[in-house]
Amino acid sequence: MGSKLVTVVVIVLGVLAISQLVRLYELSSKLRNRREEDITNRDNKLNANLMLTFMFLFYGFFIYLMSTYGWTGRGDAASVHGAETDWLLNLNFVIIIAVFFLTNSLLFVYAWKYVRKPGVKAYFFPHNNKLEMIWTVVPAVVLAVIIILGLKVWGDVTGTSKNDAIQVELFSKQFDWTARYAGKNNKLGKFDYKLTTQENELALLTEATLDSAIRYMEFGKADSTVLGIKLLENKLNNKKTIFIPEEREKMEVDLDRKTRLLRLLYQMKARYDKKNDNLAYDDFIQKDTLHLMVNQEYELTFRAKDVIHSAYFPHLRAQMNTVPGLTTRMKFIPTITTAEMRERKKNSSFNYVLMCNKICGGAHYKMKMIVVIDSPAKYKAWEKSKTTFKDQFLAAPAPAPAAASDSTQLASN
Amino acid sequence: MSAITHDSHGHHDAHHDHHEESFISKYIFSQDHKMIGKQFLITAVFMGLVAMLLSILFRIQLAWPGESSDFLSLFLGETWAPGGVLKENMYLGLVTIHGTIMVFFLLTGGLSGTFSNLLIPLQLGARDMASGFLNMISFWLFFASSVIMLISLFIETGPAMAGWTIYPPLSALPQAVEGSGLGMTLWLASMTLFIAGSLIGSLNYIVTVLNLRTTGMSMTRMPLTIWAFFVTAILGVLSFPVLLSAALLLMMDRLAGTSFYLSDIIVGGEMLENHGGSPLLYQHLFWFLGHPEVYIVLLPALGLSSEIISTNSRKPIFGYRAMIGSILAIGFLSFIVWGHHMFITGMNPFIGSVFVFTTLLIAIPSAVKVFNYLTTLWRGSIVFTPAMLFAIGLVSTFITGGVTGIILADSALDIAIHDTYFVVAHFHIVMGMSAVFGMFGGVYHWFPKMYGRMMNTRLGYAHFWVTLVGAYGVFFPMHFVGLAGAPRRYYDYSVYGEFDTNSYEMIMDLNVIITVFAIIAAVGQVIFLFNFFYSIYRGPKAVQNPWKSNTLEWTTPVEHVHGNWPGALPVVHRWPYDYSKPGAEEDFIPQTVPLADGEEDH
């Protein structure tokens, strides 16, 4: 409270001080018969000199920031295409920094040099076709170079990956990442968001997950935090229970929605070819840390469960949005292992990271995943330690004892 | 220096509406373009202040994350800053409303609304806008939308929190963030009114420019300000309706259960049925406005500064026709570049490369404008009025902010810096500095025309230098924060401590520097506010043509009259840039002076 009072007092005093100064200034202007629009030579000269001074301070600030912070924040690019784009970025920086210095210098020096001087009239110079041609054509040529180089690299970066690229899917939701590796056959299993259950968070599509999703839709969660269709119907049809109208309406809406979703699930099941099971069953899922093998190409696909996120690997110079309802992709080849990067940065706690770079809600800033780039030997050892989706899913405890009791209840009804 | 009247029999049409006006019809429901311009200005200045305050609030959190601040608890209270520490959600709310107000309310409503209204009739020699009534409605829609936007700051679930671009699904799902409930509904309602007001205003500007130019005022004799306002209005008419449709579809997704932008979503444990919509559709629609919007913001500022630089260099603007050409080129190109905001959204990379090409083309007319400004200064006789300082500041920031656009427009380079502070630095230097400087320059230059009094010059100097140093101090280091990889819209950058201590130290250091400069720059605006309001009431009386300028507004009397010119409308004989013309006695020749014998038109 004390500091608030001080703030208010300071503001009030400040305003009073300015108003007194202004009145003083006005009086002296009146005495000297000076009008606001008549800028004195002294004021003109002062501002001209300030222009030049500002230019030097500004350049000094820029050079200081460049020498202190330059690229230190991110370090070397740790991917093949990252090295290319960094090279191009530096080339572009050379061009634009040159333009920056040239034009800003002309601006501030002219402002300083051509300040009004008594007796000197401005030079009437309304246009000059040759000059205008020069500064249309020169930027056009430079831009043509920039465009051509840029598009070439862009084509490389966004092109298709080779067949031996490892397929990995990154699944994003508020506020974490999950990675899914394509496993032995290097083909990612299919998915459908309607298959999402507690045991199948990534909504992979197999006959068993279909059944599980249908069961979930019908019987809800074991602990009754999510009501299944059967229980909802049961409750709504129970003549002995009286609901608040809003509560009832909410349940009815929920029931309608679930019934429609269930119909879609049955349609999916009817069309499903069991041969596809193997696509998903050999996949394996990894949370918390994304493991990558050095000098190996990766084909990444992205999904989002709720809102748009963006998979941003600052050190690999890679980024792609993840969009609900749409699968996006990119590829890269990591080139520097975590251990090597730690050495280069002389920082033993350094880790690569995958961050979310699209506003996605309150904890957006915490949504990240540590990325580990390993030597092939270490990577393979880690890979071996992973459990496939098949083992993980089929080993999970059979869902819904509560659901079972519901169904018995139903039967007894 | 009075207008040379050519037809003395034209008096009868000038005096017919000089009746006594009530307070309400003069100051509130005014249909006079000069008053409406001032209404826009005052509203926008207030909105700008609010948005600046919001930015200081979140800058405090960024510089000293998690530390208790009296300042935060003073403004946000226990609900949004318990114990003086900003809440995560409110941080996003502050960022969102800061961006929305600055882009739309200050720089669109404030800049184009104020100066188009003030200057179009005055510089063209018209009695008023084509429709004074529509003009009034345009302001009141703007005002209503401002009020709704401000109200949204005070509701229980907080204002919109999805960023000023309000990308769905985040903005469509209250389960995803609380601000997407009532806060977002108010945001959409406010913007709908804003767009309606802006459209009506723009149509009015276009009609006025095309039809109400006085005798002799051909299109190629119009000041560059008018050209800029004219093209701005056309951009607004063509692009704002697209934003309205984007907002409308979003409204339907939120309220009517449609699936324009939603597909396959599970949020807050609830499986939604929406299927087949595309969030990318929204982004296309949004940026189809969003990019022209940048030029809706910037062109008026460039137009104002053209006029100010020419007047105060006492030289004709260099390459008048090239300037018109580049305004038109920028206007045209601005419609085919929106995809550069979407390189990494999952849009087809081939389409991305088309947008790279069109976007980089914009650099050419922009370069032409910069070089023309520089040549205008060359061998001039520069008078440093506060307006001139701001105009020169605008050129500097237009360069500094413009060149980084070349990097962001290059899709291959954009991958690594998209949505980082590098982008924040880029668009703040262009919009937060250039466009705002244009607006300040305009206020200082045309203040005598608006209020019949002069602003204090020395306070103007102090304001300029504090603002220039402060704002560059804020936005220049942001490039380095961005190159370090820091994503924008992060509540707390100390998360970097968990994986990269080098970046962590650098980002935290720079964030403190940025916040300190931000506070300096914000406090510097007090000088302006004081000068502005003090001068409205107590500033010294202005003379008719204080800056010895050529354009028509300086031939009107200092005291405002309905219809602008008490006698007949002025007749124009020359372009507006005959400064320091060889053979002339004075260093300026107003547009109303007939060509001398043997004198060539420009």
Secondary structure tally: strands of chain A:
10
Hey, which two chains have the biggest interface? A-B, 133 and 143 residues
Major sheet attributes of chain B = 2 strands, antiparallel
Query: What's the SSE pattern of chain A?
Result: HHHHEEHHHHEEEEEEHEEHHH
Uncertain regions spanning at least 5 consecutive residues of chain A: 400-413
Overall body shape of chain A: extended
What low-confidence regions of chain B span 5 or more consecutive residues with pLDDT below 50?
A: 1-17
Number of helices of chain B: 16
CATH topology group of chain B: Cytochrome C Oxidase, Chain A
Radius of gyration of chain A: 33 Å
> What's the end-to-end separation of chain B, in Å?
22 Å
Number of helices of chain A: 12
Content-based structural category of chain B: mainly alpha
Total domains of chain B: 1
Overall structural domain count of chain A: 3
Structural class of chain A: alpha+beta
What percentage of residues of chain B falls in helices of 4 or more residues?
55-70%
Number-wise, the strands of chain B total 2
Plain-language structure description:
- The complex is a heterodimer of chains A (413) and B (602).
- With 413 residues, chain A is an alpha+beta fold.
- Helices cover 52% and strands 14% of the residues of chain A.
- Chain A has twelve helices and ten strands.
- The radius of gyration of chain A is 33 Å and the shape is extended.
- Chain A starts with a helix and ends with a helix.
- The model of chain B is unreliable at 1-17 (pLDDT under 50).
- Chain B is globular, with a radius of gyration of 24 Å.
- Helix content of chain B is 62%, strand content 1%.
- The chains are: A alpha+beta (413), B mainly alpha (602).
- At the A-B interface, helix 1, helix 2, helix 3, helix 4 and helix 7 of A face helix 3, helix 4, strand 1, helix 8 and helix 9 of B.
